[in-house]
Structure formats: C-alpha cells, structure tokens
C-alpha cells in the first residue's frame, strides 16, 4: 500500500542539494478569524507562516492585499469527486482545481465511487490517487452497507499496523445512506443500530444521508406526474424529518457523534435544534443549493436542479438561513456532485441523475449574504473540529493555505469561468459578491 505524507515538504532535491528558500509577503490584508477581521501582514517562507502582524521583511514576492480579506484554505466536508469509476464526469485533479479556484483547499470525499470505498484496498487506492493531486488535500469517508464493511472499518480503526495507522489518517469518518441515492449505497436496515453502537465505542463520527426509504417508496407509488418537479414530492420533507428523528434516537441511546448531511428542510432543522438543546452530540451541514434554489427553479433549470434530497420551498430556504444565523447549522458543505450535461438532459426527467456541482461557487454565494467570520466558522473552524482534520489557521508555524479574496467584486456566475469537468452550474447567471484573487 502507498501512504504519502498528509502534509510537509521535501527539504532535499533528488541530487541531494538543498533547494533555495522561497518567500511570499502578503501586505495589508484583513485576516478573517472566528472573532472578526484582523488587519495584519503575513510572511510565508517555504510553505510555512513565519510572521503575522506588522512585517517589514523583504520577500521573493510581495502581494499588496489592502482592501482584501484573507481566509485559511476553506474546507468542504462533503464532495463527490467521482474518481475512481466515473472519470467521464469528473476526476480528483479536475475537481481539486475547481475547489482551489473557489478558495477550498481541503475536501472530504464520499464513498459512492466504483469501486465504493468500503474496503481497505479501495481506500488505499483513493489515497494513492489523491497523492498525485497538488491543488487540494483530499480526505475520505468510509462507507458501510453490510456487516463485512463494518468489520473492515473496525480493523482499520484499532489496528496497530503502521500501514493501517497511516491509512486511517486519511479517513475522516463513516458515511451512511439511509435510502438509495447515486451509487446505491443504502445500508442494510438491520445493521444501522450496530453501526451507531460501534462508532460510539470507537469514537468515529457518522455522517448520514437522511431520507426514509418507506416514506419515499410510498410517495413514489402515489406520484403520477412525470415532470422533474415531482422529484420534490417523491422525496418529501417528511422523509428527511422522519429519518433524522430515527437517527437521533440512536444518538441518544449510544452517544454517537452524528452529522446530518445536506439538511434541506425546516422540519429536519427543528429536530436537529431540539437534539442540540438536549445536549446530544449532533451537528449538521447545509448545501448552497438548498439555501438559494427552491421548487420555483424547476421551471427554469429542469433537471439541472435535481438532487437528493431535493430542492424545497422558499420558506425552507429562509429557515435554513436562519439556522445559520442562530448557530444551529454548523457547516456549509456543497455536496459537489457533477454529472455530464448529456446525462442530465437525456431520457425522462425523473430518471436523470441527481446531483449538482458547487465547490467553486460556494464562497461567493455565502459572501452575498453572510459576514466573513461566519463563513470562517462554517467552512473552516467547525468542519475542522467535527471531523478532526488537523488543519491550522493563519498563525505562526502553520502551513495553512492562504486564500486572498476581494469582497467588493460584484459578478455573475458563469459555467464558462469555472473549472469543474462537467462544465455547467445550476447557478448560471446568479449575481454574487466576492472573488478569489489568489491562493498561496
């Protein structure tokens, strides 16, 4: 197995010589912290921040950042980079470039690839592939659909083997699908409780796609409409709420650290808020598309706004924004899930694959409505803590990526300007604020 270092630098060239040091000085920017912006210079030497504050040193490159805001490399804790198995849709390399262009330099990739990430060999292969990607630090969720996968996960987590310890460092938790979505990774119903119990014992966070299969099946049987808008009826808010409620009962029983993926509805949010009030170890995320797209957008976008869980009502949008403001929602994660335009537009609308790209556009969408320090919590501080990613902020001694953003830019999103291999966006023409100037 091949396990590259998660971070760090090779200090010797192949000929044994010591390469020349490189330095970058960022002058006059406003560093975004959890407590707000702080005006300071940053000196980075050979990839490590050596000074923060008033810096008078010379450097190989000086970037004038007055009027710009500066984030540590942002974290998207829910992406589908499609590799291996679906490289015609996207690759780790193409989507990492898209992420970096949007200020995201660390992502957590989901297991529904081909083969799925449910074995040691599959996880090792993904780690090897990710080691060849320079734009982004890619971590991976392990999938569990059957008992053998749970046994493998336990072996990974408790092994004293140097190889498995190294591999475990790339695994940020377990992903469960309570109903089918892309990749058909639905967990066996009778296994769910056992997984919650085991993850509690081993201190492994669970992230779950929360939709109830019985509710979805009944809604699908009752549906007679073939228009894509029926997708939101076939997978109703009741499905999400019921699934979250069932999972939270297991959290209360076992104390498992539990994260609700792509929360989409006011009803689901209410269950999460109540669980937090009761002190349960539950966190949640919302995707940008569930903040700004609604069932009203089916008319314009058609299958380009088809995803699981589906878009909801405008009132659900506003409830989720409020959930961000009051702190109930912990993270914004894009559920970046590219498909080709041909796949999206072929055949019957309800048969089109679910999922949309979003990793490159998230920051600008959020800057249109939120304060930068709130974004820092949603896309750095909270996901870093929840999934124990070990990322450092913009402090002396850190090797953090530095994202320089002009917050004054007003622009429209256009697919032609983006880097995802799928070459389309559900946010085409949307007015947003902010533009990533540089990532160093």
Supply the helix-strand structural class.
alpha/beta
Q: What is the name of the CATH class?
A: Alpha Beta
Radius of gyration: 22 Å
CATH superfamily: Metal-dependent hydrolases
Summarize the helix and strand pattern as letters. Answer: EEEEEEHEHEHHEHEHHHEHEHHHEHHHEE
Mean pLDDT across residues? 95
Q: Provide the CATH architecture.
A: Alpha-Beta Barrel
**CATH structural fold name:** TIM Barrel
Strand order of the largest sheet: 6-7-8-9-10-11-12-13
Number of alpha- plus pi-helical segments = 15
* Domains (count): 1
Quantity of strands, as a count: 15
Q: How large is the share of residues in beta strands? A: 15-25%
Name the quaternary structure: single chain
Biggest pleated-sheet summary: 8 strands, parallel
First CA to last CA: what distance? 31 Å
Which word captures the global form? globular
Helix content: 25-40%
Low-confidence region ranges: 6-14
Task: Describe what you observe in this structure.
The chain has 440 residues and is of the alpha/beta class. Helix content is 32%, strand content 22%. It has a single domain (73-393), classed as Metal-dependent hydrolases (TIM Barrel), CATH 3.20.20. Helix 8 (237-254) packs parallel to helix 9. 48% of the residues are buried.
């Amino acid at each position: 197995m091949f396990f590259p270092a998660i971070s760090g630098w090779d200090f010797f060239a192949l000929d044994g010589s010591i390469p020349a040091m490189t330095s970058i000085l960022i002058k006059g920017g406003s560093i975004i912290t959890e407590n707000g912006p702080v005006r300071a210079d940053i000196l980075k030497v050979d990839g490590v921040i050596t000074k923060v504050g008033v810096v008078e040193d010379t450097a190989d490159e000086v970037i004038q950042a007055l009027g710009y805001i500066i984030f540590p490399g942002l974290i998207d804790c829910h992406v589908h980079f499609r590799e291996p198995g679906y490289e015609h849709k996207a690759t780790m390399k193409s989507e990492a470039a898209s992420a970096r262009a949007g200020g995201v330099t660390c992502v957590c990739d989901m297991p529904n690839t081909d083969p799925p990430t449910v074995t040691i060999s599959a996880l090792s292969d993904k780690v090897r592939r990710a080691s060849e990607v320079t734009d982004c630090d890619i971590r991976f969720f392990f999938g569990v659909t059957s008992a053998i996968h749970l046994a493998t996960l336990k072996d990974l987590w408790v092994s004293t083997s140097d190889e498995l310890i190294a591999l475990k460092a790339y695994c940020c938790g377990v992903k469960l699908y309570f109903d089918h979505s892309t990749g058909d990774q639905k967990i066996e119903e009778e296994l769910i409780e056992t997984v919650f119990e085991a993850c509690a014992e081993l201190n492994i966070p669970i992230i779950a796609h929360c939709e109830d299969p019985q509710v979805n099946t009944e809604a699908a049987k009752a549906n007679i409409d073939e228009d894509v808008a029926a997708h939101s009826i076939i997978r109703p808010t009741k499905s999400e709420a019921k699934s979250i409620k069932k999972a939270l009962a297991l959290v209360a029983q076992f104390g498992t650290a539990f994260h609700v993926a792509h929360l989409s509805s006011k009803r689901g949010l209410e269950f999460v808020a109540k669980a937090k009030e009761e002190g349960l170890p539950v966190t949640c995320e919302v995707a940008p598309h569930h903040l700004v797209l609604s069932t009203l957008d089916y008319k314009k976008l058609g299958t380009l706004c088809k995803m699981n869980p589906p878009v909801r009502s405008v009132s659900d949008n506003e409830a989720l924004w409020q959930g961000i403001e009051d702190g109930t929602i912990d993270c914004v994660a894009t559920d970046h899930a590219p498909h080709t335009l041909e796949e999206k537009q072929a055949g019957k609308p309800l048969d089109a694959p679910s999922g949309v790209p979003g990793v490159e556009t998230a920051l600008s969408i959020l800057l249109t409505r939120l304060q930068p320090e709130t974004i820092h919590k949603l896309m750095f501080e909270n996901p870093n803590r929840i999934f124990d990613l070990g990322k450092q902020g913009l402090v002396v001694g850190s090797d953090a990526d530095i994202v320089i953003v002009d917050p004054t830019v007003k622009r429209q999103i256009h697919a032609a300007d983006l880097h995802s291999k799928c070459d389309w966006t559900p946010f085409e023409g949307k007015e947003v604020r902010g533009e990533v100037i540089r990532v160093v």
